[in-house]
Design goal:
The structure is a single chain. This protein is 33% helix and 23% strand. It folds into two domains: 210 residues, ATP-grasp fold, B domain (D-amino Acid Aminotransferase, Chain A, domain 1); 86 residues, Dna Ligase, domain 1. It is built from ten helices and 13 strands. It has a seven-stranded antiparallel beta sheet. It has a six-stranded antiparallel beta sheet with strand order 1-6-2-3-4-5, sandwiched between helices. By secondary structure, the chain is an alpha+beta fold.
Length: 328
């Protein structure tokens, strides 16, 4: 028992945030329950983002009832690729990514061939709430399939890598690149076996990786190094994430974004209860950074001023970034 306590105190000294602290000091404190539907329902998130001029994957259509499943053909139209996902799903469950057509059927991104009837059955399962938070009835959305930027080709397997940035009151505090693996089935979900790679807030350079809670240097499928990769449009990603505070009103969120090879940075979804593995990937505790932001907010409040998105990003990049010193 003493050994456990000693270990926990050591983690606390490094600013490691546990789930109880996350829930009590951040989720409950900064996130009003009345605003949860904005982030828990992907359709509402998408509509708010579009209204704010923020780019998201194009929505082709929504199916809300069993009767509306008949509209599936019309929504898909002549498209060869698309994504079907539950509006209130979590952890990547219930998502089908169609990459192509084959002899009147559909080919998923993993190469599996499925029929139109199987897709209809899957949509029906989504509507029943099989994949939704709390098992409540849900809606299915059909949207544009993101094609990852070529920068990820050597360090990802099949699926779409995404960038998760945790934001406190509009200030990005920590970032991670999530890379699909064979084990994760091409999904960028750490609990299913994806890789989390820390990202330097100042430069957008990738740091070390974590896979199944172990520190790694290379992608297990491509065997290429995951650190030292320069993510394009980094300042754009930071400003997108910071601006999501005004978009949803929630003070503590995880912002998930993707980089499409044609459309550039896109907001994928927002999360009111972001996970904590991001700390392993960054070799840094969240509370060290959240406390610094809270101190900044107190200072600004005393002065009667607020900061713009650009000023918030500049503050965290200077405070938490690892910009290499130039020798002179």
């Amino acid at each position: 028992m003493f050994g456990f306590w000693k270990t926990w105190k050591a983690l606390e000294a490094r600013g490691i945030m546990g789930i109880n602290r996350r829930n009590a000091d951040y989720v409950l404190k900064y996130n009003k329950r009345s605003l949860y539907p904005i982030v828990d329902d992907k359709i509402i998130t998408k509509e708010r983002a579009i209204a704010a001029g923020i780019h998201v994957p194009q929505l082709y259509g929504v199916i809300s009832t069993e009767k509306e499943i008949d509209k599936l053909d019309e929504i898909i139209g002549g498209r060869n690729d698309f994504v079907i996902k539950p509006a209130q799903g979590a952890g990547g469950d219930g998502i089908i990514v169609i990459a192509d057509r084959f002899e009147g059927r559909y080919r998923t991104v993993s190469g599996k061939i499925i029929s139109h009837e199987e897709i209809e059955h899957h949509v029906s399962s989504i509507l029943t709430g099989l994949y939704s938070l709390g098992g409540h009835r849900d809606r299915a959305l059909i949207e544009y399939r993101v094609i990852p930027d070529q920068i990820f080709k050597s360090i990802s397997y099949e699926g779409v890598p995404d960038i998760r940035i945790i934001v406190l009151m509009g200030y990005p505090v920590m970032a991670m690149l999530r890379l699909p693996t064979r084990q994760s089935g091409g999904k960028a979900n750490l609990h299913q076996g994806a890789i989390g790679v820390g990202v330097d807030l100042a430069t957008g350079l990738t740091l070390r990786g974590t896979w199944l809670n172990n520190i790694i240097a290379k992608h297990p499928d491509t065997t290429n190094a995951v650190d030292g990769v320069q993510l394009p449009y980094w300042d754009g990603f930071m400003k997108l994430a910071a601006g999501c505070y005004e978009l949803c009103g929630l003070g503590y969120i995880g912002v998930d974004m993707v980089l499409d090879q044609e459309k550039g940075p896109l907001i994928l979804e927002l999360n009111a209860r972001p996970g904590l593995n991001i700390q392993i990937a960054n070799d840094c505790g969240l509370t060290l950074r959240t406390h610094a932001v809270e101190a900044r907010l107190e200072e600004l409040k005393a002065r009667g001023v607020t900061e713009t998105v650009e000023e918030r990003v500049a503050f965290v990049q200077e405070m938490f970034g690892h910009i290499p010193q130039v020798e002179g």
